[in-house]
TrEMBL record:
PROSITE patterns, alphabetized: FN3 (PS50853)
Location of this chain's protein in the cell: Membrane
SMART domains in alphabetical order: FN3
Species for this entry: Pelobates cultripes
Broad class of where this protein is predominantly found: membrane
Any matching Pfam family: fn3
Signal sequence extent: 1-27
Name of the protein this chain belongs to: Interleukin-27 receptor subunit alpha isoform X2
Length: 510
C-alpha cells in the first residue's frame, strides 16, 4: 500500500484492502481512506476517494477482471478535478457482480484496489446512515433519540457523539454497542443547555461498512437554569454598590431572553428586582450598605439557584504584592502576580479584576478567579488606546474577602493629555511667585504623566520650566510687569494641550 504524502498520524484497522486514516483538522476529526470506493445509494455508481493532495491531479484506471480471450477488457480512465480527492464512477461504466481492479496513479505513485461491484462486497463501503431528526425525552435528565434506516439485516450501526460546548475536551463518546437498537438509539445523561454532534456508521461483523456520517448537531432542550453564577461587585464607590455577573449559557439559543432576579436587604427590608440579559456582563446598581445581594437566572422553565456577592472586602493595609500586566496580542490582558501572600486559608482563591477608570467611577471590564498555584490569568476583552485601565488583586477565603491587596494601572497605548492642569499663582514678592496645580483627572491624562511644563511670557522675556512636581517657585521676575502664564502636562507620547492662560502682574517696588 502506498502512502500518498501522508504526514498526519494514521491509525486504524485495515479492513479488506482499504485503510482508514483519521486526519485531525480544525473542524475536528475528518475521516479519509487511503483509497476506497463507496457504493452509492439507489445504485448510482461508485464514489472513489483517497487520501492525497487535492491540488494535484490523480488518475483512476478501472479494469474489469472478467477474463475474455477474444475481447480483453478495456481500461477506463478517470482524472480528478483540481481541488478534489474523489471521482464518481458512473453506474454505466460498471457491471453488477463483476470483479474489478482499480489503480490510483499520480506520477510514479500507484495504488491498487480490488472489488466486486455489489453493495455487499466487503471491499466496498456503502453510504453512511442517514440520521433522523433528534427527539427529546426525559424529565430530570435529558436524553436524545435518533433513528436510521437499516438497508440489510447484516448491518448494524455504531454511534458516537460529543459535547461541543465543552471546549476543554472535545472528544467523541462512543455508544456502548449493546445499548444500540437495530434502528434507533437513545443518548442519555446529556448536559442541559449544551450543543452536541452525533454521527453514525454502518458495521457488519466487526467490519466497517461505511465512513462516519455527517454530524447531526443539536441543542439539548431548555430547562430551568442550573448551576451557580459568577457574581462580583465594585468596592470603590461609597454612594452605591454595583453588582456584576456573567450571564449564563451565552451560547445557548434563547438564553439572551433570560431574566435575572436580584434580591438584597437594605434599610432592614428585603427587596427584589428583575433585570434582562446583557452581554458581556450584567450589572445592577444597588443602594450603598446593601447586604445579602444575590442573583439567580430565570427562564420560562423556572428560576435557578441564587449566587450571592460578598458584602464587605476587608481593605487591609496594602500588602504590596507585585502585579504585572501585559497586553495579550490575541485578546485582552494577561496578569501575573507574585504569590507571596501569607494567608492562612484552606481554600484560597485569587480574584483579578480589570476595570476602566471613567469620569463616573470605575467600570468593570472583566474578572477571573484562580486557585493558589496559578499565578497568571488572561482576561479577555477589548482594549481602547489612551484609556486608563486598572487591574486589582483580591483574595477570597470562603466568604471572606480581602483587598485590593494590589493595584496597577495601565494603557494599551499612551497619548498626550487632553487637558492642562488648573493652576494658581501666589505672589511671594515683587520678583518671586509660587505656582501650584492639581492632577488632571485620570480620564483626561491619556497616559502616565511624566512631567509638567510651566510657561511664562512677557513683552521682554519668555521662560519655560520643565518640572516633575506639582508646584514651582520662580524668582528673578521683573517687577511691575505683565506675565502670561500657562502650564502643560506631558506623557511619554508628548506634551498635552495648553489650557487657560493666566495674566499676572508682578508688584511694583515701593
Ligand atoms: C464523494 O466523496 C467525497 C469525499 O468524501 C465527497 O466530498 C463527495 O461529495 C462525494 N460525492 C458524491 C457524489 O457522493
Ligand atoms: C487508459 O490509460 C491507459 C494507460 O495510460 C491506456 O493504455 C488506455 O488506452 C486508456 N484508456 C482509454 C479508454 O483511453
Ligand atoms: C459473521 O462472521 C461469521 C464468521 O466469519 C459468519 O459465520 C457469520 O455469518 C457472519 N455474520 C454476518 C451477519 O455476516
Ligand atoms: C453606610 O454605613 C456606614 C456605617 O454603617 C455609614 O457611615 C454610611 O453613612 C452608610 N452609607 C450610606 C450611603 O447609607
Ligand atoms: C421549557 O420551556 C419551553 C418553552 O416555554 C418548553 O417548550 C419546554 O418544554 C420546557 N422544558 C421543560 C423541560 O419543561
Ligand atoms: C495570551 O492569552 C492566552 C490565553 O488566552 C495565554 O495562553 C497566552 O500565554 C497569553 N500570551 C501572553 C503573551 O501572555
Ligand atoms: C502562567 O502560569 C502557568 C501555570 O499556572 C505557567 O506555566 C506559565 O509559565 C505562566 N506564564 C507566565 C507568562 O508567567
Ligand atoms: C479645572 O477646574 C474646573 C472648575 O473647577 C473643572 O471643571 C475642571 O475639570 C478642572 N480641570 C482640570 C484639568 O483639573
Ligand atoms: C509672548 O509675548 C509676546 C509679546 O507679547 C508675543 O508676541 C508672543 O506671541 C507671546 N508668545 C506666546 C507663545 O504666547
Ligand atoms: C511642592 O511639591 C513637592 C513635591 O511634590 C511637595 O513635597 C511639596 O509639599 C509641595 N509644596 C507645596 C507648598 O505644595
Amino acid at each position: 500500500m502506498t502512502w500518498i504524502g501522508m504526514t498526519h498520524w494514521c491509525w486504524l484497522r485495515a479492513v479488506g484492502v482499504f485503510l482508514l486514516l483519521f486526519v485531525g483538522d480544525l473542524g475536528g476529526n475528518s475521516e479519509v481512506c487511503s483509497l476506497c470506493c463507496i457504493f452509492l445509494r439507489e445504485d448510482r455508481g461508485l464514489n472513489c476517494t483517497w487520501a492525497g493532495n487535492a491540488n494535484t491531479q490523480y488518475t483512476l484506471h478501472l479494469q474489469s477482471l472478467k477474463f475474455n480471450i477474444n475481447k480483453p477488457s478495456t481500461v477506463l480512465n478517470f482524472t480528478s478535478l483540481l481541488g478534489r480527492t474523489s471521482i464518481l464512477i458512473p453506474r454505466k461504466s460498471l457491471t453488477k457482480n463483476d470483479n474489478y481492479l482499480l489503480k490510483l496513479k499520480h506520477g510514479a505513485e500507484e495504488e491498487s484496489y480490488y472489488f466486486t461491484y455489489d453493495d455487499a462486497d466487503k471491499n466496498l463501503l456503502i453510504e453512511p446512515p442517514l440520521l433522523s431528526d433528534v427527539m427529546f425525552s426525559g424529565e430530570s435528565d435529558v436524553s436524545a433519540h435518533i433513528s436510521w434506516p437499516i438497508p440489510s439485516d447484516n448491518l448494524h450501526v455504531a454511534i458516537r457523539y460529543q459535547n461541543l460546548a465543552d471546549t476543554n475536551s472535545k472528544e467523541w463518546i462512543y455508544a456502548d454497542p449493546s445499548d444500540i437498537q437495530h434502528d434507533n438509539y437513545e443518548i442519555s445523561d446529556l448536559e442541559p443547555f449544551s450543543q452536541y454532534d452525533v454521527q453514525a456508521r454502518y458495521e457488519s461483523n466487526n467490519t466497517l461498512r461505511s465512513l462516519w456520517s455527517e454530524s447531526r448537531t443539536f441543542w439539548t432542550p431548555e430547562q430551568a437554569p442550573v448551576g451557580p453564577l459568577d457574581v462580583w461587585r465594585n468596592f470603590d464607590m461609597k454612594q452605591f454598590v454595583i453588582l456584576y455577573w456573567k450571564p449564563q449559557h451565552c451560547q445557548y439559543p434563547g438564553s439572551d431572553k433570560w431574566n435575572y432576579i436580584v434580591t438584597y436587604i437594605h434599610g432592614g427590608g428585603s427587596n427584589a428586582l428583575k433585570t434582562p440579559y446583557r452581554e458581556p456582563l450584567c450589572e445592577v446598581k444597588l443602594p450603598a450598605n446593601s447586604t445579602h445581594m444575590c442573583v439567580s437566572a430565570q427562564n420560562n422553565n423556572g428560576t435557578g439557584p441564587p449566587t450571592c456577592a460578598t458584602t464587605v472586602c476587608l481593605d487591609t493595609k496594602p500588602l504590596d504584592v507585585e502585579i504585572r500586566v501585559w497586553l495579550n496580542v490575541t485578546q485582552g490582558v494577561t496578569v501575573w502576580w507574585d504569590e507571596s501572600l501569607n494567608e492562612r486559608c484552606e481554600d484560597l482563591t485569587y480574584l483579578v479584576e480589570w476595570t476602566q477608570l471613567t469620569e463616573g467611577g470605575s467600570k468593570m471590564k472583566n474578572w477571573a478567579r484562580r486557585q493558589v498555584g496559578k499565578q497568571n490569568v488572561t482576561l479577555p476583552g477589548k482594549l481602547d488606546p489612551q484609556v486608563p485601565y486598572q487591574v486589582s488583586l483580591f483574595t477570597l477565603c470562603q466568604s471572606d474577602c480581602k483587598g485590593p491587596v494590589s493595584t496597577i494601572m495601565f494603557y494599551s497605548q499612551e497619548g498626550v493629555p487632553s487637558s492642562a492642569p488648573n493652576f494658581s499663582v501666589l505672589p511671594l514678592s515683587s520678583t518671586d511667585i509660587f505656582i501650584s496645580w492639581n492632577e488632571i483627572p485620570v480620564w483626561k491624562q491619556k497616559g502616565f504623566i511624566t512631567s509638567y511644563t510651566v510657561y511664562l511670557n512677557s513683552t521682554v522675556d519668555s521662560q519655560r520650566h520643565p518640572v516633575s512636581a506639582r508646584n514651582l517657585s520662580i524668582s528673578g521676575l521683573l517687577p511691575s510687569t505683565v506675565y502670561e502664564i500657562w502650564v502643560t502636562a506631558s506623557t511619554a507620547a508628548g506634551e498635552g494641550t495648553r489650557g487657560e492662560v493666566k495674566v499676572f502682574h508682578t508688584k511694583g517696588i515701593y
